[in-house]
Queue: 2 jobs
Job 1
Amino acid sequence: MHTLNTLPFNNRFATLGEDFFQRVEPTAVEKPFLIHVNQQAADLINLNIESENNADLLAYFSGEKTFVEGDALAMLYSGHQFGHYVSQLGDGRAIMLGETNGYELQLKGSGQTPFSRNADGRAVLRSTIREYLCSEAMHGLGIPTTRALCMLGSEEVVHRERLEYASVMVRMAPSHVRFGSFEVFFHRRQFDLLKQLADFMLEEHFPECLQQEEPYVGLLQEVVTRTAKLMAQWQLVGFAHGVMNTDNMSILGLTLDYGPFGFLDSYNPDFIGNHSDHQGRYVFHQQPNIGLWNLNMLAQAMLPLLEADNPELAVEKARAVLQSYQPSYLDAFNSGMSEKMGFYAGTNSKEGDAELANNLLTIMAKNQVDYTIFFRKLADFKAYSSKNDSELRDLFLDREAFDHWAVDYRQRLIEEGSDDVQRKRAMNQVNPKYILRNYMAQIAIEKAEAGDYSEIDKMMRLLQTPFDEHPDAEIYAGHPPSWAEQISVSCSS
Ligand code: AMP
Ligand code: MG
């Protein structure tokens, strides 16, 4: 195990040179204090963060001190925001400190960079708590994501709709490279830099693609497959990202940049988490399509790599790869739904399973049934008797709609000779008991803003093992309180 003072650095991204980033030192926040450390993430870099002394944590992660062997930089990227190309974005408030044990350590909220445009480079406490908790919640749910290592508060005041305190978190990922990191070089027609970035990603993050005849096609294929799977995982757990701009899409297929996200409470495919998304571009049910739209933008940016001298052939190759998206997505979504409904994994999904899932989602939407609560309770369904059905059917206003569905579901379970006990065990491993509902984040935020940070640690423990029972936190497994509907989440962060 290392300490902060002995972390070994190997700054791979920095070797790309200054066409890809700008070197910049963090600007320390005023009067920082420690809010939380996450040993689970620290384990990934062999850091014993729980036994670190406070002074070192504050010095390194407030931005006051940089790692001697690190190489602090802000990454360049562009991207399509709400469908429109923006030619230069870049890390406006994130600074990568360096790479250790295969992970980039990034401060978020560490002050201005050459990419800040006129913004302050800071992040407010409220948005930092949301990102900190949600990245670990997603990891707990088995969904690829950037990780959260540590979180600091400060007495520095920043201006948003109101005055708020600045906060800093340390984010970790094997790579923070985004679709937009490729787009910027395509749109500037800097194809040599585009190639350099692709070669770097192949070597460091997709070495298996280098064995293929056409590594760049392989790279695009891998991103398509990972993104399709990620979108299915989001839909299956009821996660709405909120700002699926191409600068927030990870090349590694990680959930990246937690802003105005939201988990569904009642199942509502028309849910728009981001109140600034007036057109509803990133509405829940559109996420898989947006994933593909974004991949189209990436594929376009990679065209010069696919077939430099023959644009038509390049387009053909890109199309062929993109065509695999829909089947990959459907495959992941349908098999995920079969698991959620408790059908034996490994048995061929039967014809009609997708319809059964669709019918369920339709009546859940009509009846505004809580998505997470329903699937968790579905594990108690008895295949060979309807005596137990009432708890489930009571979740529906239209109880007959549930009864109709239950007839088909029961028949399907009987057909495969489903065992109630075994099925429940399996279902409880895929249907979480706990998700980070907006109101929960809100409770943690309001307490923190009043100086009590205890809820963050409590929720963290819960969300890191969301499939387990947590008797002391039963309240968070229930329906959200009525005030939850009033919570409004904007882009402001
Ligand atoms: P986001 O919507 O958080 O993904 O941010 C979009 C772009 O705006 C990125 O380039 C961010 O770095 C930048 N940005 C957002 N907030 C700030 C801020 N407070 N200071 C500087 N840049 C910011
Ligand atoms: Mg972003």
Note: The chain has a mean pLDDT of 97.
Job 2
Amino acid sequence: MARVLSGREAGAALNEKNREKVERLKAEGISPCLAIVRVGCEPGDLAYERNAEKRCEKAGVLVQKKIFPREAETKELLSMMEELNQDPSVHGVLLLRPLPDELDEEQIRNALDPKKDVDAMTDLSMSGVFSGRKIGFPPCTAVAVMELLDYYGIDPAGKHAVVIGRSLVFGRPAAMLLLQKNATVSILHSRSRNIRDLTCQADLLLCAAGRAGMVTGEMIREGAVVIDVGINEDAEGNLCGDVVYEDALLKAEAVTPVPGGVGAVTTAVLVSHVIEAAARLCRM
Ligand code: NAP
């Protein structure tokens, strides 16, 4: 039976570290602050915003909310980004995406100063993920996976990591972070052939296709570590990942549940990025 890698436990440990770091910064007169920019009232955005606010509050990180109506124009968002870039009391900015189609999302996200880009929304931050230079921060979910592995003492070095999914939000940056930790990495996507043969070679299998139940027991190598990043709904409307959890429990050495896995670490990582951004900006 596989070990269950609890994101709630790993997230709680990171939350505690965050709280301690904020206390130390406050002793230096620095109060970390996250600005959340939201356009419209999409339920997914509202849920993420509530979660981020709660996590920030618990760690002692301030939150400013900048809310725009669904009909907002690109120029209004651009001037908000400029205002936030110039505001010394704001250290991190989270723009809830995707934005409505009428807005120029690429221009708006790239208007942010990468130093305040706590979730890799600018092209410059993303370049830092690929070059290994400290420009902004990597995407929170990719870092959350690395935190989970680290918390449970799983070292990617020398392991064959197979990542299902090549999005810029997760697959590609996660592959780069694994490479930095000396894993040998394969990235699979919807055009990959013989997916089962490839996943069966994985010591570390990261699943981020966004397809409920796609990864069955026969795709998992005996003794692999399986990280399920997918967030989907099953036929009954319950939250589930990409992996058939019961199969992974029987086949893998360790597996993350959904819910309570990677997602539970992601907002703790967001808060840690705001704290680090505040330290970098204020100690410069
Ligand atoms: P995405 O942009 O839709 O990308 C999905 C990727 O999976 C694509 O690269 C796609 O290949 C690949 N794919 C789809 N079906 C496949 C198949 N049958 N075989 C192999 N590859 C396949 O999604 P995303 O933004 O990366 O998110 C992926 C999942 O992670 C979603 O369920 C999302 O909700 C979840 N997520 C979770 C968190 C968290 O905090 N836990 C955060 C972000 C995302 P192509 O490139 O060829 O189309």
Note: The chain has two domains: 29-115, 140-263.
